[in-house]
User: Which sequence fits this backbone?
């Protein structure tokens, strides 16, 4: 088979459907990545228009442009759109598009999950856009502090749009994060050990892990606040045993890591682009990896620095102030590693490099003002003024938008296969750079003069008029620059001429393919022995196209790739991906219907929608593609590998591990909330405790143990080759008993609206109940497969996945029962 | 702090500029470069600078803490949407709306709380800000050096009336303070 025939065969296997059907049924990572990037850019423009409205309002004193009620919606939505609908999805889009190409594989671990995540994002985003157009947008500020966001002070549906829309979008972020983790660890070119991974993959891995750790606290907070708003569970009401500070803790437990979740991918882009522009290799690869990991850890230790003015004890302040300044160290390491790389090589002044220089200028200022606000006495003055707004824009615009623009222009030839023709990008850079600094330097200044953030008007005699006007004019100059970038890209996509394949002389694998890339990425999966394989072997692209490496011979209509051992990169198994499918968009619509039911408070919709979710999920799980014969498969180069689903730990098992990791963080946050109200909340203890029921406790523990033991026996039976009937039956019985015990406890939680204690107990037990139900559904599916027998007979990989989920459900049932049943003895 | 920050910023910009102006020394070993850029500038430099800054901040913060003192005056500030109401420990039952009276030259503890949503008490020339949180009382130590009027605002977004939510602090000389307290006894 020659290269052209191979290209045609692979294109037929991998291509999405033509026309609009292709949009809704594609599961290909290049398509999904492009769609993510496009929609995220649209939201960036929406957020930008909102920013211009804010600057119009503040350009003059006593502005009559919009009334405060509308202005509050505008600035709340500006923050919300930029954080949740632009920055995170843009990272996801870039990662979804680039990672398989950088890692030398053909798609991400779960193609349908990428599509599902994308549609969740679109539907959640549409909810918020609708709210904005209808004038019902959230208006309590993007961090939604109760009691301002509680039903007493925000009676409309505005806050519900935020809580439900943002949570829906976060489902998509969690899905993408699981996908990214497993793809990076398992789906790489053979030979690419962790140490040889492109640096962007390291950053993406750390970022995805941070999303799994950082988002669950906010998801929990949103659920609790929505429960308070909809049903009056008083989690945040101090008079009834709740605490408004609980929200602030949960929010900033998410909110501070969020800043680094946004910065790290951008740093990954810089670490990739900058060495190429300096015609050298990155200085201190391992240092940079260590710095990224250190940033991730530290960022979870300093959420309280957003709460310096809430009356936290001084010792606590000292700890968090120290952690906040310490975070500058790994940031400094990266900055100086990049400068050292420039010194090491021969830097060119290309357009991507221009944006990186813009990054250096802006981000260093943002970092230094960040150190200032980490110093407590300074923060007591600067907190909640325009100084802080300016600081965070220097960090986020400087640390994210500039590097992403550098990345855009760097990878543009890879996206389109074209060469830039018009020189609009350079002019746009200067407008953006000068406009940005003019707008936000002025805001530092006016903030130090005492202008608070989020004000809708200020008096003439404040002396802020000229500074604000200057800031507004600069902001509009910046907006013109952004519009020019959009125009430039549109011209590029429509008019520019074809370019060469690797215009920058880069060394990573995404340039070892024809551009624009084919749906299958690599005609054969290369063997990697260097961090920059293309630099080491310039003929690599041709060898790949000639099918000299793995999986160079297409079989039938199977979408094939390889998984590797996570650490060493030794090839491990053959993966057969699912084909195009409308299942993801259908599942996203069903999920959306459940969220919509909660939003419009038509609650019977929710169980109906969840029924669809369960049905579609089961179909999803059952419709796995596999090879025509079982046993070892020929993957080329005289190598035989098993199919991934016939190994003990299939990709589904790995995904479950990461998803359960995020789930554990959510559960841990719930425990944190319980302990927080107990120890710090005003008006504790509650008037009445949950009394101990030995019956419920014993049933719950016995049931949980039976479920775990039953599945252990089932796994042993399957690995021996015999049907796991007995073990599965025991597990089913165990899960049923657990559900009964939890349901009994749930009914005794008391009057849920009277006191935060009862409401908290209710949520903990309900959480355990939901997980027991998931375990029940999965175990039932296992039972059905066992009963059907033959080809449906469960494999070890199936049992292992169900085991993970059931063990977790058992753990949750046991711990939640113990924590609640004994509460009256803990005082 | 500003001068130090400016110096660090200038250093980074200078290193960036020089990278474009110099011919690279290709004979330098990777290890030597790592030692200079990463151990030196990346690790040691920020650690030393930040440690110094942190200690300075903590010591300064300590001096701003309320300390037990003989002549401390205690007042109470209650925030609501969108007004401030003040009470006085030395004059039970006396309440003022929108104006806080304090003696000049004496430490004053303001007990801050809220009746509805989260607000923040901020009189920029007297002290930093401290949040007014429902169900919780935070104590802020302020002191006015000289008699006069000081401006104060709500500094945590609290809804549509937030922009205009302000109050005034009037610091009295001893005679004026006595007169203020005396008036309340009548």
Assistant:
């Amino acid at each position: 088979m020659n290269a052209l025939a191979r290209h045609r065969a692979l294109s037929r296997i991998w291509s999405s459907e033509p026309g609009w059907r292709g949009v809704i049924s594609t599961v290909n990572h290049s398509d999904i990545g492009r769609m993510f990037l496009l929609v995220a850019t649209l939201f960036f423009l929406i957020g930008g228009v909102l920013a211009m409205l804010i600057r119009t309002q503040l350009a003059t004193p006593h502005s009559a442009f919009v009334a405060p009620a509308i202005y509050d919606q505008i600035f709340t939505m500006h923050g919300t759109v930029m954080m949740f609908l632009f920055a995170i999805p843009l990272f996801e889009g870039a990662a979804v598009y680039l990672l398989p190409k950088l890692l030398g594989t053909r798609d991400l671990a779960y193609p349908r999950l990428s599509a599902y995540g994308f549609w969740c994002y679109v539907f959640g985003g549409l909810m918020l856009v609708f709210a904005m157009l209808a004038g019902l947008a959230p208006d309590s500020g993007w961090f939604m502090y109760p009691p301002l966001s509680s039903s007493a002070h925000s009676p409309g549906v505005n806050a519900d749009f935020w809580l439900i829309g943002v949570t829906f979008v976060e489902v998509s972020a969690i899905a993408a994060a699981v996908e990214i983790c497993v793809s990076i660890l398992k789906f790489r070119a053979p030979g690419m050990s962790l140490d040889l991974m492109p640096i962007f993959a390291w950053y993406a891995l750390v970022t995805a892990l941070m999303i799994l750790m950082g988002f669950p606290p906010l998801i929990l907070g949103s659920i609790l606040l929505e429960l308070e708003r909809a049903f009056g569970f008083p989690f945040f009401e101090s008079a009834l045993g709740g605490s408004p500070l609980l929200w602030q803790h949960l929010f900033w437990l998410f909110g501070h890591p969020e800043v680094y979740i946004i910065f790290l991918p951008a740093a990954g882009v810089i670490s990739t682009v900058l060495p190429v522009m300096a015609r050298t290799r990155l200085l201190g690869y391992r240092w940079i990896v260590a710095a990224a990991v250190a940033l991730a850890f530290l960022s979870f230790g300093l959420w309280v620095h957003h709460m310096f003015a809430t009356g936290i004890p001084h010792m606590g302040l000292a700890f968090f102030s120290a952690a906040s300044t310490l975070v500058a160290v790994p940031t400094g390491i990266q900055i100086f590693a990049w400068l050292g790389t420039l010194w090491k090589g021969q830097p060119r002044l290309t357009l991507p490099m221009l944006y990186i220089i813009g990054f250096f200028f802006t981000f260093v200022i943002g970092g230094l003002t960040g150190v200032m606000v980490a110093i407590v006495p300074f923060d007591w003055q600067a907190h909640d003024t325009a100084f802080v707004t300016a600081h965070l824009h220097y960090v986020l615009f400087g640390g994210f938008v500039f590097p992403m623009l550098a990345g855009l222009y760097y990878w543009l030839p890879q996206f389109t296969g074209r060469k830039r023709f018009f020189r609009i990008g350079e002019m746009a850079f200067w407008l953006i750079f000068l406009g940005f600094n003019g707008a936000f330097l002025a805001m530092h200044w006016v903030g130090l003069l005492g202008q608070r953030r989020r004000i809708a008007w200020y008096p003439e005699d404040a002396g802020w008029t000229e500074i604000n006007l200057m800031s507004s004019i600069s902001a509009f100059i910046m907006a013109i620059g952004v519009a020019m970038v959009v125009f430039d890209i549109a011209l590029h996509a429509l008019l520019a001429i074809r370019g060469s394949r690797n215009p920058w002389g880069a060394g990573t694998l995404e340039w070892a393919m024809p551009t624009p890339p084919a749906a299958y990425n690599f005609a054969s999966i290369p063997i990697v022995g260097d961090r920059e394989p293309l630099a080491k072997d310039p003929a690599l692209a041709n060898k790949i196209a000639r099918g000299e490496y793995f999986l160079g011979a297409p079989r039938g209509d199977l979408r094939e790739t390889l998984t590797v051992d996570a650490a060493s990169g030794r090839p491990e198994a053959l993966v057969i991906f699912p084909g195009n499918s409308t299942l993801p968009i259908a599942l996203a619509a069903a999920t959306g219907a459940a969220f919509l039911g909660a939003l419009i408070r038509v609650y019977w919709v929710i169980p109906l929608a969840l029924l669809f979710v369960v049905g579609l999920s089961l179909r999803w799980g059952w419709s796995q593609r596999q090879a025509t014969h079982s046993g070892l498969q020929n993957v080329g180069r005289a190598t035989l590998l098993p199919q991934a689903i016939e190994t003990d730990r299939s990709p589904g098992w790995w995904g479950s591990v990461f998803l359960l990791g995020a789930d554990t963080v959510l559960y841990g946050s719930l425990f944190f909330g319980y302990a927080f109200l107990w120890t710090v909340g005003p008006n504790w203890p509650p008037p009445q405790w949950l009394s101990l029921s030995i019956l419920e406790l014993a049933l719950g523990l016995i049931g949980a143990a039976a479920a775990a033991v039953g599945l252990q026996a089932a796994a042993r039976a399957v690995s021996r080759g015999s049907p796991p009937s007995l073990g599965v039956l025991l597990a089913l019985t165990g899960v049923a008993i657990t559900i009964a015990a939890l349901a009994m406890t749930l009914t005794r939680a008391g009057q849920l609206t009277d006191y935060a204690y009862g409401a908290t107990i209710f949520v903990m037990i309900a959480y355990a109940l939901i997980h027991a139900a998931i375990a029940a559904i999965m175990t039932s599916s296992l039972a059905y497969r066992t009963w059907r027998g033959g080809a449906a007979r469960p494999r070890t990989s199936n049992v292992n996945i169900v085991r993970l989920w059931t063990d977790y459900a058992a753990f949750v049932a046991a711990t939640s029962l113990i924590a609640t049943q004994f509460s009256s003895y803990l005082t | 702090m500003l001068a130090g920050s400016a110096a660090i910023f200038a250093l980074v910009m200078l290193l960036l500029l020089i990278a474009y102006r110099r011919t690279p020394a290709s004979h330098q070993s990777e290890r030597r470069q790592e030692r200079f850029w990463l151990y030196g500038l990346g690790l040691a430099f920020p650690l030393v600078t930040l440690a110094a800054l942190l200690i300075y901040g903590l010591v300064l913060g300590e001096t701003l803490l309320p300390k037990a003192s003989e002549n401390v005056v205690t007042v109470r500030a209650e925030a609501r949407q969108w007004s401030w109401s003040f009470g006085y420990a030395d004059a039970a039952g006396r309440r003022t709306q929108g104006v806080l009276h304090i003696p000049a030259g004496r430490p004053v503890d303001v007990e801050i709380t809220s009746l509805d949503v989260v607000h923040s008490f901020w009189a920029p020339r007297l002290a930093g800000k401290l949040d007014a949180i429902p169900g919780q009382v935070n104590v802020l130590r302020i002191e006015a050096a000289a008699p006069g009027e000081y401006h104060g605002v709500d500094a945590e977004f609290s809804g549509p009336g937030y922009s205009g939510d302000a109050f005034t602090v009037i610091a009295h000389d001893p005679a004026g303070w006595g007169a203020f307290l005396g008036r309340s006894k009548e």
User: Anything to note?
Assistant: The longest helix of chain B spans residues 30-64. Residues 73-185 of chain B form a domain with the Immunoglobulin-like fold (CATH 2.60.40.420).
